[in-house]
Design brief:
The protein is mainly beta. Helix content is about 10%, strand content about 45%. The chain starts with a helix and ends in an 8-residue tail after the last strand.
Length: about 170
């Protein structure tokens, strides 16, 4: 008799899921409300506007980075950035260079995509940044991953701290 009850429960669950379009394993309990997913927090682009300094790591090793992020001209949700890289004490042989990036800051994620070099050292390619903002006030940090535009795997991470909340970038 237990087998019949169990089989009946499986059949009932299958019938109910067929009517609702859900699979039995993923069906919510009939006694509990369905789970709700919280809305993604919105983050105004102004949260990341300004000048950020720190380092990133790619094939050349640890490299200094100043990132100047500004609101894109005519695009409330878009960002433009000046990407300046240079040698640091731990890696004095890195040449200086500069490029532009364009991107967004949404739901706590910063995504900047390489646009063009304005000063390109020989053998260097552009990079994309994907990161998040942590902290508040004068202790804000932008950190995440660096990806070479060429698709190489030699780039890893970046970490920047805010030095000014007013950017000067005008890429647009």
């Amino acid at each position: 008799m237990k087998k019949t009850c169990f089989a009946g429960a499986v059949v009932l669950a299958s019938v109910l899921s067929a009517c609702s379009g859900a699979s039995p394993a993923n069906s919510p309990s009939p006694h509990l409300p369905p789970p709700s997913s919280p809305a993604a927090p919105t983050s105004p682009p102004s949260s990341v506007l300004g000048i950020w300094k720190g380092t990133y790591t790619c094939q050349q090793g640890l490299t200094g980075l100043t990132l100047d992020i500004a609101q894109a001209q005519g695009n409330d949700a878009g960002l433009d950035a000046e990407f300046d890289f240079y040698a640091v004490a731990a890696n004095p042989g890195v040449p200086s260079g500069r490029g532009t990036q364009r991107g967004t800051y949404t739901a706590g994620r910063l995504i900047l995509t390489w646009q063009a070099f304005t000063t390109q050292p020989a053998g260097y390619g552009g990079v994309n940044l994907n990161g998040s903002l942590t902290g508040s006030g004068t202790t804000q940090t932008l950190s995440g991953t660096v990806a070479a535009v060429s698709g190489g795997t030699a780039c890893t991470t970046f970490s920047l701290t805010r030095t000014s909340s007013t950017g000067t970038s005008a890429n647009g």
